[in-house]
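Protein Record: Sequence and Backbone Structure Tokens
======================================================
Scope: a single protein chain, as residues and as a discrete description of its fold.
Tokens: labelled as protein backbone structure tokens, with as many entries as the chain has residues.
Position: the record begins directly beneath this header, with no further notes in between.
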Amino acid sequence: MGAGGRMPVPSSSKKSETNAIKRVPCEKPPFTVGDLKKAIPPQCFKRSIPRSFSYLITDIIIASCFYYVATNYFSLLPQPLSYFAWPLYWACQGCVLTGVWVIAHECGHHAFSDYQWLDDTVGLIFHSFLLVPYFSWKYSHRRHHSNTGSLERDEVFVPKQKSAIKWYGKYLNNPFGRIMMLTVQFVLGWPLYLAFNVSGRPYDGFACHFFPNAPIYNDRERLQIYISDAGILAVCYGLYRYAAAQGMASMICLYGVPLLIVNAFLVLITYLQHTHPALPHYDSSEWDWLRGALATVDRDYGILNKVFHNITDTHVAHHLFSTMPHYNAMEATKAIKPILGDYYQFDGTPWYVAMYREAKECIYVEPDREGDKKGVYWYNNKL
């Protein structure tokens, strides 16, 4: 971490722990967004319709091939082999569909093409297919990008202060409790956030992504919430008809389980991007957009970086320039790292290790004690 470069994972676990918790600077950076933009080659900001569609079509073809093999050949396998074939299908299909989710997410950022109508059409179709209310989430996610790192205004994975920890929190602060909490978070976290704003910022009123009159949205956005709901209902009706024709078990195996994996990866990726012992949070007296955008960390998911279209290892650049297409984000990240210096965070800890570590280390935030910086908060785990 730091020095604008990627740190290899140290062989010594003690050294790894030391590097992992090195805090980022929380002072105002000596550079501006303009400085960072000037360092990035201009072509990185260009959106190409053919190139964007090439990634989407590739994902669709791969997912269709998995579906074809599962529906036409799994029934021919001897009984013991099918027990291995289905989990392999679920894992592979879930990963590929996560890539589709990422491309639809790019549409919400207007990073797919130069045409907003095209971005919204593609995003609505493919997010609806994955039971995501496209416009509803587009608007709340935009506010997340506008308020990242703010304890009062950020939209998702807003950390609690110690006084807000429930009485039973100390009983979950153990290996079994952490595994249970992570399991619930990955299985139910995404639908609970969409339906009931769990882990989101507090609102006055019923904050639901499916409710057009929710306080999340302003009057100009409410009509599009109805459109999002219509997209979800259309897909649900299609799934109902499929289940009626092919059976509920077929629908669950071919679509339901991969969707659970998509949802789990979505929560995992977002959680690890914004939860790290080295990252600060700010209250309203100290927060500004640039420092908030830098309060995120790039991670390494191995081969899945490519499957997920590099949303995992270029997230810092994405928060700085969210309209940049994913296929240019690696080049942009390389260009800005020398300027960011210690403000750039990369953690190469394997994701399956990092998720448990962050669940253990990042329970709540408390005001800065080491440097007495008012308005700056860091993670702690002492209950």
